[in-house]
Design a protein that fits this description.
2 copies of one chain form a homodimer.
Chain A: H1 3-26, H2 53-70, E1 73-78, H3 84-94, H4 96-100, H5 108-117, H6 145-153, E2 159-166, H7 173-178, E3 192-199, H8 209-212, H9 215-224, E4 227-233, H10 237-260, E5 267-273, E6 283-284, E7 287-288, H11 307-318, H12 322-325, H13 334-337, E8 381-382, H14 384-398, E9 405-409, E10 427-428, E11 440-441, E12 446-448, H15 452-464, E13 468-474, H16 482-495, E14 507-512, H17 530-535, E15 542-545, H18 550-562, E16 567-571, E17 577-578, H19 583-592, E18 594-596, E19 609-614, H20 616-632, E20 638-643, H21 661-668, E21 674-678, H22 683-689, E22 698-701, H23 712-718, H24 723-733, H25 740-762, H26 767-770
Parallel strand pairs in A: 1-2, 2-3, 3-5, 4-5, 9-12, 9-13, 10-11, 13-14, 14-16, 15-16, 19-20, 19-21, 21-22
Antiparallel strand pairs in A: 6-7, 8-17, 18-20
Helix pairs in contact in A: 1-2, 1-3, 1-5, 1-10, 2-3, 2-10, 6-15, 14-18, 18-19, 20-24, 24-25
Family (chains A, B): Belongs to the XFP family.
EC number (chains A, B): 4.1.2.-
Organism (chains A, B): Saccharothrix variisporea
C-alpha cells in the first residue's frame, strides 16, 4: 500500500484507541454515541488519566504496523503511571483483552462493559495492572519500567522490548540509573530494548525536567547514557505519523544490524515529544488544557452538571469519528483491524508477558553434592553461602543451554561468597575491560551493578517473562527496594487470582552479610528489618527462611528455586558456621520448618525450659547456652527448638505454613518458660505468636538497634543475645533452682564483662568464642 | 610563593593524610615508626578501606589551599562509601578532630589513639559517620551524597559544597537522579554545589560503569546533566597537583562569575580519575594491587603472619616520609599546617556541618488563625491538609527573610492540598518556563521533583545544616525512602550521643493521600506500612502521629515543627473530614496524645465496651458505630478513645511517650472488650500493647492488604473496618445483650450488603455515607 494509506490506517487505529480510552474515563452508557450525550450517560465519579493516553496509543499503533510488516515479537512496557486507558483500549481492539475476559467482547455490549468497569468499584484501575493482558509492569509506582524491560530482554534473543518511559518517571532515581542497563545487554544472546522517552511535558502539576532542558542538553544526556536518539516531535497527526513511521523503520533496521554485528552497539532510542492530552479538548473554561498539566487526569471535570462541558465532551468524542471505526454492532471495522497483528504477535497476547506460559522447570542438581558431612553435630564448620555458591554454579551449568537462570547483585556476589558461580558463567559486561578484571564476559548470566533498584527491577522483569533467578544482597540494604518488593508482592497477589495468568518462578532473595556480622561496617549496615517489612504483604505470597547452617541453607535454597508465585526471603550468614545438621536431617528439618533438636536438649519430652532459636547467630548462642546449662545445671531439662521457616510460628488461619495450636504447644509447651533468640527485631516473634497459649511465657532476645563497629560476639553482648545472657534469662525464669541461681547469674555476668573488656582491649573475640564447638 | 612551592606543600599535606589513613588501617602501636615494624604493632583484625582514601585526601588538600587563598566557606561531602580513614586523617591534621575529641590530640599519643580506635571495637567505623567532624553524610549506604549537598546549599548563598561522588555510588538510582539537583539551585539565593566525580575505576570486586565508558560518552552524560566538566586525570602526583590546582582555580572563578550573573548557569564540575589505592603497594604476591579492585579494602592482608607483607607495609608507610611531616612528638610540623585553613574555615569545623550551631527558632504563626470553629462536635467538615497549607503559607511568610524553611514533595503539594503555600512562595525552578506554568520561580522554597529520594535527601541536607522543613508524600510511596529514613534515624541516634553535636530540627513527614483514599489509584497506592517501618528505629528518635481532623493536624504539625532531633511521621487525609474537636480541645488532646472522648461516649466512667480509634478514617467509623450503638442499644455504655500519638500505646519503658500501665488501664479498662479501629496494619497495635493488662481483650481492625480501585466506604467494608462491622464486633464481644444481639448483627450485615451492592451498581457511596455527620 502507499505511504499515505499506511498512515491513514495507523491514524484510524489511533483514533479508535483514543475514542475507547476517552470513553472509559467518561461513559457509563451510550458507548457508540447512538444518541446525543446526556448526564445519565456519564459516570458519577470521573476518575482516570487522559494525559499520557494518546501518546501511548500512538506508539502502540505504530508498533502494530512494524510487528505486522516484520513479524517481530514485541513486548510493550508502559512506563507512564496511568496508562491504563490506553492499554485497555488497545488490547480490547486487537482482541487480546476479550480472549482473557470473554465477558468483555468486541461488540457494543463489550464496549459498554469496557467503559463502565474502568476506575469503577469492582472494576479495573487507571494504571496498567496485572489484569491487563500483555503487561509485566504495574503503572502505579514509577521508576521501574526500563529495569523491567532489560530483565525481560535478557536471554530472549528474538524479543524486542518497547519501553515507553514517561518524562515524570524519568525523574526518579531508579529510572535515571536504568538507562545504563544497555551496558549489560548482549546483542547476541539477549533481546533488544527500545526506550521511547515520551516527553509530554508535565507531571501532575509541574513541568518535567527532561521536557524543559534545551535540546542539546537532552541529546547529550541520552548519548551519554549510550544511546543514539531519534526525535519524533510535534502535534500535527499527519506529520507525526510520517515521522514516527520513518523513525521506527530506521530503528528496527538499526536493531537488526546490531543483532548481526558484534561490536558494542550504540543502541537506538526514540524521543517522542507530543502534547499532553493530545487530541483532547484544547481549551476549557477559557484556559488551555491540551498540552498542559491540566490534561493529566480528566480534562473536562464537570460533565454531569455543566452542559458546556458535556457539549465539549461529545464534540471531543465525535472528533474521532467513531462511526468510521466501529460497525453498527460496535465491532471494530475489519479494515481497522488490518493493522493489528495476529495471534501471539499481538502485544496483548505475547506469551512473554504471561511468563508462566514459557516457564520451564529449572534443572537443579539437588543439594547432596554440595552438602557437608556431619559426623557429629556442631563439631565442624563451613561457610553456608560458599556451599550455596557451588550449588548455584551447577545450576548455571545445568541450565547453560536453556539460559533461564540469572543471579543479580549489587557488586556483592564475591563478598557474599557465592563466587564459585564464576566457574560456570561470567559477570555480564559489554563495555571496556582491563587485564586485571576477573570474570567479565559479554554473555555472562551474573549481573552486578551497584544499584539494588536495578538488580530488583531486572530480576522482576526476568521472572515475569518466565525465567528463574536470585537476588543476593546485603541484608541492611535490601530496604532500598522495600517499595519495589511491595509492588511485586502486590502484583503477585493479584496475578494469582487471574486464571489466565500462569504461575511464574518466585522472586528469591538471599540476604547475606547480615546484621550480626558487620565487623568492619558497623551501625549503618546493621538492619534486619526487611523481614518485618515483608511480613505485611499477603500471606499467600511471602515466605521467610532462616537456615541455621550450610545444609539447611542448601535445602531451603533448593526448595525456593522450585517454588512458584512467591517471594522467598532467605537470610544466611557467609562466615564459618557450625554444621549442626547432616544433609538428611537438614532436609527433614527444613520440610518441617521448625522442630525440636532432641540431640541438643536434655528434656526427655518434659522440659523445664525451652530455648528456641531462628537464624544462624541465634542458633549458635542458644547451643552454647545449652552447653553451659548442661555444665552448670546438669539436672535442668532443656529443650532446644530451631525455627527455619518463620511463617510456621503463625496460626494456620493467618498463613498457609502456620502451625495448628496443638503442634505449637507440643514444641513450645503450653506453660514452660521459652527463651527465644531471634535473628531480627524481637517483637516480630511476639507478633507471630501473640495468640498462642504460651505467649505470656515467651521471652524474646534479638537485635535491639544497638550497633557499632565491633566483633561478632560483642554485637551479641551489646544486644543481650549472647550465650551468657541467655543462661541468665533461663535462671531468671526457671523456678526452683535454689542458691545455684544467684551464683550462676553472677558467674555469667562476670563472663560477659570479661569478654567485653577483652574485646575492647584486643580488638577481637577470645579464642574460646572463635573456636567454640558443640561439646556433646 | 612559587607554583612549585605551592604544590610541595599540598603534596606534603597529602602525604601526611595518606600516612595517617594507612596508619589507621594497620597500626596498633609504633605510630611514628620509631622502630622497625613488628607483628606486635599490627592490629589483629585488619578492617578498613584504603581504595578511595588517597583520592579523598588529594581533594581535601587542594580544597584547603583554595579555602585559604579565597577565604571560602566549604562544606565537604564524602560520597565514597568507606572514606572514613581520609576524613579522620584530615580532621585530625587540621585540628578539628581534637577540638571535639580532646583525648585524641595532635601528638604521638593522639596519633596512636587515632590509629587504634579505627575499625576497632568501641572505636569508630570505616565510613564517615556522625562522629566525624565536618560531616553531614554517612558513608555507609550509597547514593545520597549529591542530594545532601544540594540540600545543604539551598538558602546558603555564601557556601560552597564540595561533594565527592564515588564512581560506585554513581551507579545508584538516587545518585543518578541527583545530578538534576542543579536545575533547582538559585545562583543568587542559594550556595553552590561542586560535584567531584571520583573515577577510581572499581567498586568492591567490579569495575564501575562510568570509569569504563568512552570519554566522549562520559563527557556527553555530564554535559547532558547540565554541567561543564573539567578533567583531572593521571597518576603522577606532581602532574596531578598542578592540574588539580589549575582546574580548581578555574572552577572557583567560574562559580564566582555564576554567583554574580543571573542567567541559568552551566555549573562546573570536576572529574578526578586517579588509581584506586593510589600511592599504596603497586603489586603484592605477584599481582597488581594499586589501580585495581584489590585495593578496595586492605591491600596487604597478611601483615601479621607474612614477613614480606610486613616489609611491604613498612616500605609503603615510610614512602610518605613521616619524619618530614611530623615532629618528634608526633605533632604535624608547622610548615605542613600552613596549608590548613583556620578556625571555622577548616572543613572539619564548619558550623554548617553541625547545623544545630546555626539553627534559629522557626517563626511560627500558631495554629489559631488556621483552625476551624467547632460549634458542635462532628457536624461540620473541612479538609485537614488544606488548613495546614494555609498555616504553612504563613510559616513561609514569617520566615521569608531568614529563609530557613522548605517544603519538599514529589509533585504532590497541590494534590495533597497544600497549595496555599504558593501564595507565599514559589516552586523553585531554574529551567525554561511556559505561559501555562504556575508558581514556578527561581527563588521559591518549595521543591517539587518526581523523586522521593531527592526530596528526602535534599531535606536531610537542609536539616543537618541547621534549617527546617517538611516532606509531603503519598503514604504508600514513602516506602521508596525506607532505607534513607533508616540511615537518617541511625544518624540522629548517634548524633544525639555526641555532646558536641547540637540539636537539629526534626525530619517531618506528612503522609497524605493515604491508604483509605485511593479512589482512582487502587491497590498499588494502598500501603500504610511506613509506620511499621519507622517503629523499628530507636525510640528516642521516632514519633508517629495520626491526627483525626483538621484542628488536631494543625496542633500536631505545630508541635513537630518545633521539635528537635526526631523523625516525626504525620499521617493525615486531604479529603473532607468531620471536625471532631475545637481548637482548644484539639491542643489538649494532642498534648495528651490519647484520651477519652467523653462527649462521644455513653459510659459514665464505667464502660461495657471501648471503641478505640487512631487515624482519620478509623475515627470516622468508630464515631458512626458509636452513633449506631446509641440508636440500637441505648443502654450500652460505650467509651470512645482516640489515639493521636501512637507511641503513647507503648509501655513507658519502651518509649519516652509511653503510658504507664495505670494510665493505659484507665483508658482501655483492665477487662472490658476493646474494639480498636486503626489506620494501618492491625498487628502493630498488638505489638504496641501486648504487655498491657487488657491485651487479650483488644480486638484490632485495620488494613489487611485488601485493596482495589473503589469508593472510600467500600474500602472500609473490604477490610472489615466499616461502622457496621464495628457494631458487629461489639455485639460479638459484649455479653448479655440477649436476643437483640442476633437481630442487630443481622441488621448490620444487611447494611453492609446493601452498601456493597449499591456501590458496585452506582460507582459511588450512598449519600447517607457521603453526607453523614455526628447526630448527637
Amino acid at each position: 500500500m502507499s505511504a499515505s494509506n499506511r498512515f491513514d490506517l495507523v491514524d484510524a487505529y489511533w483514533r479508535a484507541a483514543n475514542y475507547l480510552a476517552a470513553g472509559q474515563i467518561y461513559l457509563l452508557d451510550n458507548p457508540l454515541l447512538r444518541e446525543p450525550l446526556t448526564p445519565a450517560h456519564i459516570k458519577p465519579r470521573l476518575l482516570g488519566h487522559w494525559g499520557t493516553t494518546p501518546g501511548l496509543n500512538f506508539v502502540y499503533a505504530h508498533l502494530n504496523r512494524v510487528i505486522r510488516e516484520r513479524d517481530q515479537d514485541v513486548l510493550f512496557v508502559t512506563g507512564p503511571g496511568h496508562g491504563g486507558p490506553a492499554l485497555l483500549a488497545n488490547t480490547w481492539l486487537e482482541g487480546s483483552y476479550g480472549d482473557n475476559y470473554p465477558e468483555v467482547p468486541r461488540d457494543e455490549h463489550g464496549m459498554r462493559t469496557l467503559f463502565r468497569q474502568f476506575s469503577f468499584p469492582g472494576g479495573v484501575p487507571s494504571h496498567v495492572a496485572p489484569d491487563v493482558p500483555g503487561s509485566i509492569h504495574e503503572g502505579g509506582e514509577l521508576g521501574y519500567s526500563l529495569a523491567h524491560a532489560f530483565g525481560a530482554a535478557f536471554d530472549n534473543p528474538d524479543l524486542l522490548v518497547a519501553c515507553v518511559v514517561g518524562d515524570g518517571e524519568a525523574e526518579t532515581g531508579p529510572l535515571a540509573a536504568s538507562w545504563h542497563g544497555a551496558k549489560f545487554l548482549d546483542p547476541v544472546r539477549d533481546g533488544a530494548v527500545l526506550p521511547i522517552l515520551h516527553l509530554n511535558g508535565y507531571k501532575i502539576a509541574n513541568p518535567t525536567l527532561l521536557a524543559r532542558i534545551p535540546h542539546d542538553e537532552l541529546d547529550a544526556l541520552l548519548r551519554g547514557y549510550g544511546y543514539v536518539p531519534s526525535y519524533v516531535e510535534g502535534d500535527d497527526p499527519a506529520e507525526m505519523h510520517a515521522r514516527m513511521a520513518e523513525v521506527l523503520d530506521g530503528v528496527l533496521d538499526d536493531l537488526h544490524h546490531i543483532k548481526t554485528s558484534r561490536a558494542r552497539p550504540k543502541w537506538p532510542m526514540i524521543v517522542l515529544r507530543s502534547p499532553k492530552g493530545w487530541t483532547g479538548p484544547s481549551e476549557v473554561d477559557g484556559v488551555p488544557v491540551e498540552g498542559t498539566w491540566r490534561s493529566h487526569q480528566v480534562p473536562l471535570a464537570g460533565v454531569r452538571d455543566n452542559p458546556e462541558h458535556l457539549r465539549l465532551l461529545e464534540q471531543w468524542l465525535r472528533s474521532y469519528r467513531p462511526e468510521e471505526l466501529f460497525d453498527d454492532q460496535g465491532r471494530p471495522r475489519p479494515e481497522i483491524l488490518e493493522l493489528a497483528p495476529r495471534g501471539d504477535k499481538r502485544m496483548g497476547a505475547t506469551p512473554h508477558a504471561n511468563g508462566g506460559l514459557l516457564l520451564r522447570e529449572l534443572r537443579l542438581p539437588g543439594v547432596r553434592p554440595y552438602s557437608v558431612e556431619v559426623a557429629k553435630h556442631g563439631t565442624t564448620s563451613s561457610e553456608p553461602t560458599r556451599a550455596l555458591g557451588r550449588m548455584l554454579r551447577e545450576v548455571f551449568t545445568l541450565n547453560a543451554e536453556q539460559r533461564d537462570f540469572r543471579l543479580f547483585g549489587p557488586d556483592e556476589t564475591a563478598s557474599n561468597r557465592l563466587d564459585a558461580v564464576f566457574e560456570a558463567t561470567g559477570k555480564q559486561w559489554q563495555i571496556g575491560t582491563e587485564p586485571t578484571d576477573e570474570h567479565l564476559t559479554a554473555d555472562g548470566r551474573v549481573v552486578e551493578v551497584l544499584s539494588e533498584h536495578l538488580c530488583q527491577g531486572m530480576l522482576e522483569g526476568y521472572l515475569l517473562t518466565g525465567r528463574h533467578g536470585l537476588f543476593n544482597c546485603y541484608e541492611a540494604f535490601t530496604h532500598i527496594v522495600d517499595s519495589m518488593f511491595n509492588q511485586h508482592a502486590k502484583w503477585l497477589g493479584t496475578h494469582r487470582k487471574l486464571p489466565w495468568r500462569r504461575p511464574v518462578a518466585s522472586l528469591n532473595y538471599l540476604l547475606s552479610s547480615h546484621v550480626w556480622r558487620q565487623d568492619h561496617n558497623g551501625f549503618s549496615h546493621q538492619d534486619p528489618g526487611f523481614i518485618d517489612h515483608v511480613m505485611n504483604k499477603k500471606a499467600e505470597v511471602v515466605r521467610v527462611y532462616l537456615p541455621p547452617d550450610t545444609n539447611t541453607l542448601l535445602s531451603v535454597a533448593d526448595h525456593c528455586l522450585r517454588s512458584r508465585d512467591h517471594v522467598n526471603v532467605i537470610v544466611s550468614g557467609k562466615n564459618l558456621t557450625p554444621d549442626w545438621l547432616g544433609p538428611e536431617e537438614a532436609a527433614l528439618h527444613c520440610a518441617r520448618g521448625a522442630g525440636i533438636w532432641e540431640w541438643a536438649g536434655t528434656d526427655d519430652g518434659d522440659p523445664d525450659v525451652v530455648l528456641a532459636c531462628a537464624g544462624d547467630a541465634p542458633t549458635m548462642e542458644v547451643m552454647a547456652a545449652t552447653a553451659l546449662l548442661r555444665e552448670h545445671v546438669p539436672d535442668l531439662r532443656v529443650r532446644v527448638v530451631n525455627v527455619v521457616d518463620l511463617m510456621r510460628l503463625q496460626p494456620e488461619t493467618e498463613h498457609p505454613h502456620g502451625m495448628p495450636d496443638r503442634e505449637f504447644d507440643a514444641l513450645f509447651t503450653p506453660d514452660k518458660p521459652v527463651i527465644f533468640a531471634y535473628h531480627g527485631y524481637p517483637w516480630l516473634i511476639h507478633r507471630l505468636t501473640y495468640r498462642r497459649t504460651n505467649h505470656d511465657n515467651i521471652h524474646v532476645r534479638g537485635y535491639k538497634e544497638v550497633g557499632t563497629t565491633t566483633t561478632p560476639f560483642d554485637m551479641l553482648v551489646l544486644n543481650d543475645m549472647d550465650r551468657y545472657r541467655l543462661v541468665i534469662d533461663v535462671v531468671d525464669r526457671v523456678p526452683g533452682l535454689g542458691p545455684r541461681a544467684a551464683l550462676l547469674r553472677q558467674h555469667m555476668q562476670d563472663q560477659r564483662t570479661r569478654h567485653h573488656t577483652y574485646i575492647r582491649e584486643h580488638g577481637e573475640d577470645l579464642p574460646e568464642i572463635r573456636d567454640w564447638t558443640w561439646p556433646y
